[in-house]
Specification:
Number of helices of chain B: 19
Shape of chain A: globular
Largest interface: A-B, 36 and 38 residues
Number of domains of chain B: 3
Oligomer: heterodimer
Structural class of chain A: mainly beta
Organism (chain A): Lutimaribacter pacificus
Distance between the termini of chain A: 55 Å
Protein name (chain B): Monosaccharide ABC transporter membrane protein, CUT2 family
CATH superfamily of chain A: TolB, C-terminal domain
Pfam families (chain B): BPD_transp_2, SSL_N, Str_synth
Protein name (chain A): Strictosidine synthase
Keywords (chain B): Cell membrane, Glycoprotein, Membrane, Phosphoprotein, Transmembrane, Transmembrane helix
CATH topology of the largest domain in chain B: Neuraminidase
Number of domains of chain A: 1
Strand order of the largest sheet of chain B: 3-27-26-25
């Protein structure tokens, strides 16, 4: 029966085969906050922004930079994630080489070195949580990972707990875990990119998972603690009907992955409108010289403020006509919100009221 | 493995792929998917369901009843059909205009009485009796029309009242005169002929019905009063707003219905000579059932003679058969009611879903395998290599003009272009700061060309080929061509005249992008990538238009070659330039000049150095090229994804290239960022400058050419100096 239903759905485009994307509405109503935000500095693909020794630092390629351009640290591989503990230990995710922990005295230790794509790190009191985006694809191949997963958002991502030299896997089969946060009840919250949801995992009873928020209209990246309660969630690209459709079209998708350069795929992206070889969507045609901000886009800049219960409260945007896209992490410092725009090659500073 | 031996695995893989793609190609070549949608788009398709229902009913009862198809049975049924059919026609006429007439049964009884009284008691001649009958019934129609049409009372209640009143009057009259009617015996051959006569075996009443049906068909489909009736039924408010007298139109339908009912009653009187009180009892229900069963919309606006007759046949077969099968009298009504319910349900479901069905099957993509795109990136050594030469084009009319698809200059250097508002706009030389509306056409002007006498020929999207005289008079040159033999879609009207050029003998060669879609649906045509375009030739000497090349994947730019012996045209979604020979030994044949462009070609125009300028309106994208090979993917995309989300050819970036007579690319002009002049659909060289147009732009660009002849103008070049 279910096979029959699946075939019927695929033929008619109903049920699972229907292409449906949630709207940007309610707390996610678009604005131009991120597009109009102040530029702190420009850097090549800034990724994870954190506060280290009282300063705002961010990863860019294999370096950790300050906003004035000074190098804090140069890692042996491209940096894929950062985290800072309260006692100023710095955890650095390395592309293909696990995690490096730098103690305040400069001593380096390696953990989880079998993880090739550490996408997010989080210090707990006595442990380090590591999210591994995918077991099959490195960080730069994240688009391939999405396309291989297909419409179900199947993935090979996992979450690990490293405690006193012991490494335990507490979750696997995740569709690109890209952000980590600690909820008030002690559970871990993971943002799962390809499933567009926030998942709570109890580190002590990892088989118990709970979906805190599902069907996000964008691909979520990292989570960060907000001052005064709640969390920030960065999102780097919008979900679009066309991408959801391609995820359901195995024939086209496989040939696209095999034959076309990833920059020119029908896929979400950190930045778009870089080349005329990128696919253009109907709503993206310039009319009378203007690209409409509500046009469909492969990339987007979105920061969502979540409440303590991980439900969106408000949001900040850089829309289709903007360039501050591919937001992968944020850091709050009082009234300032530092935003890393990986696609826009900028660290931005947003004034948030209150 | 050495470098010289190719990978055998890869070769097998490639062959497998090509076999699979050949099979797909074969499937799309052999099965004409597009025909289903075109048939569904036809208006007569809505008659299919009632027709099948009629055939089914006849087959069912024909097999149940012995002697159903015997000649006497058929003749008897057809004679009844003649009378009943007229009443259904009357009902159809009224509900076609959005009303309803319940008084047809009573009116029928009145006709019966008047005919019998004038013939049997008064002994009038037949023609006088007929006039009297028709007048009496027309009067009832007049009353209905006056109350419903002019006083705008509710049709249902009003005709219910006339039903009761007329029936009461007839009953009173019958009570008094029934005996004398039975006693009378008119001696008239004509009267007998009306009753029992036949012409070539066809009963008289059936002939009357046939004539009435034909007249009403012509009335409804070919005349103004008929169109008004349908317009009123379709939407009273819209009809009123477009100046139709709704009241008098509705009035007219009731009077017409009265006359038709009178005719039916007259023939009934002649056939049965029965002064019984049951004449026409329950006829309104049967007629209404028949009208709706035939597919006439109860709400109005959709009605035809054919539908009425199909419904009449079905209902008559059902009611007659129920009686002949010896069922109790109530069964007939129950059967009729059940049939009406079924018909109404089917009708509503079909009508509601027909356009959904049509929308989902009309778009029928085919395999459009394009040769690999030549490289464009900087440093590739390709003739198409990107540059920023168009980055600093001067802008003319920024923000003052919308959608100048093509541009042209006259002998006095004035600049002309089309606009979204349906105007030809003229920017005045020498600085092009001042603009004026040269002429208003109404449709979107696309391609432009001057002829020998300085008439400005214009291709107008949705309208056809027009020209504007130097005195600013707008004249239609042509808007239709010969219809393609055996085509289902009527492709004789021009939907999307696109670009044109004029041969030395004055013949105008112009392109039509697609025959399956309207102008603003061009993206749907790009999804389909079927050869829907064509090249046409308009000959001003005899005013004829004929199609010269068909099956072009969006026919776009047209340019007559320098020697005047061939026409170059652009195939936008095929990414090729082709040549159609109009003279010489190869006349009538087509050859490819440029087989693979990196983008989608638009207008072609002559350059001063003996070469051609070509606008690439957009660039090919790998994702779109791959989709072009997968028709099923594109079809599903068109059904399941909103059009704003579809992948399009990348028309945000384009360029201008120059090619020679053999199709070699000589140079390319780019604006990579597309900030200054986002879209290029056309270009025109004039006195050392290249003027650029763009369909979705709000500006015209001017690029100063370095090495071009500073005195060259296309008017002088085509037609000589004046």
């Amino acid at each position: 029966m279910s096979v029959f239903r699946r075939v019927f759905n695929e033929l008619t485009g109903r049920g699972d085969a229907s292409v449906r994307v949630p709207l940007l509405d309610g707390a996610l109503r678009p604005n131009q906050d991120i597009e109009e935000a102040d530029t702190v500095c420009e850097a090549e693909a800034p990724d994870n922004v954190v506060s280290y020794r009282g300063e705002v630092v961010f990863s860019s390629g294999s370096k950790i930079l300050k906003s004035d351009g000074q190098t804090v640290l140069e890692a042996p591989a491209a940096i894929t994630a950062l985290a800072v503990s309260p006692d100023d230990r710095l955890a650095v995710g390395l592309d293909g080489a696990g995690v490096m922990i730098v103690a305040p005295d400069g001593a380096e230790t390696r953990v989880c070195s079998h993880l090739e794509n550490p996408t997010a790190l989080l210090f707990l009191d006595d442990a380090l949580v590591v999210a591994n985006g995918s077991a099959n694809n490195r960080n730069a191949d994240w688009k391939r990972d999405l396309m291989e997963g297909g419409r179900a958002g199947l993935g090979t991502g996992s979450v690990w707990l490293s405690r006193e030299g012991q490494e335990t896997e507490i979750a696997n089969g995740l569709g690109y875990p890209y952000g980590l946060a600690l909820a008030q009840d002690g559970r871990l919250v993971v943002s799962e990119g390809w499933k567009h949801r926030l998942l709570a995992i109890d580190p002590n009873r990892p088989e118990r998972r709970e979906e805190l928020y599902s069907d996000l209209p964008a691909y979520p990246a990292r989570l960060a603690r907000a001052e005064g309660g709640g969390y920030w969630l960065a999102a780097f690209a919008p979900r679009s009907q066309m991408v959801e459709f391609v995820l359901r079209e195995a024939g086209y998708r496989n040939r696209m992955v095999a034959e076309i350069h990833p920059d020119h795929w029908v896929a979400p992206s950190m930045k778009s409108r870089q080349s005329f070889l990128e696919p253009l969507q109907g709503g993206g045609v310039k009319q009378l010289g203007i690209l409409k901000p509500w046009a469909p886009s492969w990339s987007y800049g979105l920061v969502i403020r979540l409440g303590e219960d991980f439900i969106p409260v408000s949001s900040h945007h850089s829309r289709a006509d903007g360039t501050h896209h591919g937001v992968t992490s944020v850091l709050q410092d009082g009234n300032r919100l530092y935003v890393a725009s990986r696609g826009g090659n900028k660290i931005l500073s947003l004034h948030i009221g209150g | 493995m050495t470098a010289n031996t190719p990978n055998p695995g890869a070769a097998i893989g490639a062959r497998k792929k090509s076999l699979a793609s050949q099979l797909i190609r074969l499937r799309y070549d052999l099965i004409p998917d597009h025909l289903l949608g075109e048939i569904l788009a036809k208006k007569w398709v809505e008659n299919v369901a009632p027709f099948l229902f009629m055939v089914l009913t006849i087959a069912l009862f024909g097999s149940l009843i012995d002697g159903f198809f015997a000649p006497s049975s058929i003749v008897n049924m057809v004679r009844q059909l003649g009378e009943f059919g007229l009443i259904v026609l009357a009902m159809m006429l009224v509900i076609g205009a959005g009303g309803i007439d319940l008084s047809v049964g009573s009116n029928f009884a009145l006709a019966n009485f008047v005919a019998l009284a004038t013939m049997h008691i008064l002994g009038w001649p037949v023609w006088a009796a007929l006039m009297a009958t028709l007048a009496a019934c027309a009067f009832v129609g007049l009353l209905n029309g006056f109350l419903v049409g002019l006083l705008r009372l509710r049709a249902f209640l009003t005709t219910l009242v006339t039903l009761i009143i007329v029936r009461a009057v007839v009953d009173m009259l019958l009570l008094r005169h029934a005996v004398s009617i039975s006693a009378g015996f008119p001696d008239s051959l004509v009267w007998d002929f009306i009753a029992m006569g036949s012409v070539f075996g066809i009963p008289f009443s059936a002939i009357v019905l046939l004539v009435a049906a034909l007249v009403i068909h012509v009335l409804l489909t070919r005349t103004r009063p008929g169109w008004r009736i349908m317009a009123v039924g379709g939407s009273r408010r819209s009809a009123h707003n477009s100046g139709i007298s709704v009241r008098w139109t509705v009035f007219g339908t009731y009077v017409g219905a009265g006359v038709l009912v009178g005719m039916a009653g007259f023939m009934y009187a002649a056939r049965l000579s029965s002064a019984g009180a049951d004449a026409g009892m329950g006829l309104e229900l049967a007629a209404l059932t028949a009208a709706v069963l035939g597919g006439n919309a109860l709400g109005g606006g959709r009605a035809s003679s054919a539908k009425a007759i199909m419904g009449a046949i079905t209902v008559l077969v059902v009611t007659n058969s129920v009686i002949r099968m010896g069922m109790p009298s109530g069964v007939g009504s129950i059967a009729l009611g059940a049939v009406l319910l079924l018909a109404a349900t089917l009708d509503v479901r079909f009508l509601k879903n027909r356009y959904k069905l049509l929308a989902s099957v009309y778009v029928s993509p085919v395999v459009n395998e394009l040769p690999p795109a030549p490289p464009t990136q900087a440093g590739s050594g390709s003739a198409y290599e990107v540059n920023d030469r168009l980055h600093d084009v001067e802008l003319i009319g920024l923000g003052e003009i919308e959608a100048p698809e093509d541009v042209i200059l006259d002998r006095n250097d004035n600049l002309y272009c089309g606009s979204r508002q349906g105007d030809i706009v003229r920017f005045l030389a020498p600085d092009y700061k001042k603009k004026e509306i040269f002429a208003h056409i109404g449709g979107q002007p696309l391609g432009l060309a001057f002829d020998r006498d300085d008439n400005l020929y214009v291709c107008v999207g949705g309208m056809g080929l027009y020209y504007i005289t130097p005195e600013r008079e707008v004249v239609k040159a042509t808007d239709e061509t010969n219809r393609t033999p055996f085509s289902i879609n009527d492709d004789s009207r021009l939907r999307l005249a696109d670009d044109l050029d004029i041969a030395p003998d004055g013949r105008v060669f112009f392109s039509e992008g697609t025959i399956r879609y309207e102008m603003h649906d061009w993206p749907v045509d790009s999804i389909e990538a079927r050869g829907n375009g064509r090249i046409l030739c308009y000959d001003p000497r005899d005013g004829s238009t004929k199609t010269v090349v068909r099956n072009i994947r969006f026919a776009n730019g047209v340019c007559v070659s320098f020697d005047g012996k061939s026409v170059l045209y652009a195939e936008t979604f095929g990414c090729t330039i082709k040549r159609y020979w109009i003279e010489g030994p190869k006349a009538g044949t087509v050859e490819t000049i440029i087989g693979a462009l990196p983008g989608h070609p638009d207008n072609i125009n002559r350059a001063s150095d003996g070469n051609y300028w070509l606008a690439l309106v957009g660039m090919r994208t790998p994702a779109m090229d791959l989709a072009a090979e997968m028709p099923g993917f594109r079809r599903r995309m068109s059904r399941r994804v909103a059009q704003d989300e579809w992948i399009y050819p990348n028309i945000n970036t384009g360029c201008v290239v120059k090619f020679d007579e053999e199709g070699n690319i000589l140079e390319a002009l780019w604006d990579q960022a597309g900030a200054n002049h986002p879209m290029i659909t056309s270009m025109r060289e004039h006195k050392g400058s290249l003027f650029l147009g763009g369909l979705s732009n709000n500006r015209i660009g001017r690029y100063r050419l370095k090495d071009a002849d500073p005195d060259w103008t296309s008017c002088d070049h085509y037609w000589g100096k004046k």
